[in-house]
Amino acid sequence: MANRVIDLVNGEFYHIYNRGVDKRNIFESSHDYERFIDLLYLANSSKALSYRNIKSSKKGLFTYDREETLVSIGAYCLMPNHFHLLITPYSEESAAKFMSKLSTAYTMYFNKKNNRSGSLFQGTYKAKHANSDEYLKYLFSYIHLNPSKASLTRAKTYQYSSLFDYYSNQRPEKNILDKKAFPEYFVNTQDLDAELLGWLEYKNTEV
Length: 207
Description:
Helix 1 (30-42) packs antiparallel against helix 3 (94-114). This protein has helices spanning 30-42, 51-56, 94-114, 133-144, 152-157, 164-167, 189-205, and strands at residues 14-19, 71-79, 82-89, 126-129. The chain is α+β, with helices and mostly antiparallel strands. The chain is globular.
């Protein structure tokens, strides 16, 4: 359901994104967002995992032992009709496998829930290579500021992105991220605030 559009190289960084077919919403309820976020964790495994069995077990989903993961995720943000991911793959094929598992599992869930059939996403996912430090650092801001046009507070409290997990270590979803695989651009939350506010100010003064 999702194939490589460029060769994704081990150790490099990529912005992955896709939207709904015909620009339709792919998230229509809080449960939809939560299912996709669950799958960001569970699909990132070289072995097949049963969502139903894991979800119903007493062990927390975000602490389940996935054994070998396929990619490292540094950031994500889900919007009503599209999503953004920032990843680094472990092999040329691992990103494609991860995206195939993620999109197939979510499409099957969404179609069954809504009594529909066919593709949910607008073709193959898109991938852009973050080929410089400057661009990779920019992507952290770009992805996380998607929910906000002017307010950093709104972006920081948006529950369907990973920004919350850069400010707090409290929620289980933090285990989706592998921060160690990405450069440590922000020594503390004050540095992160300054970076995000700088981009917001730039966007709001563009002519």
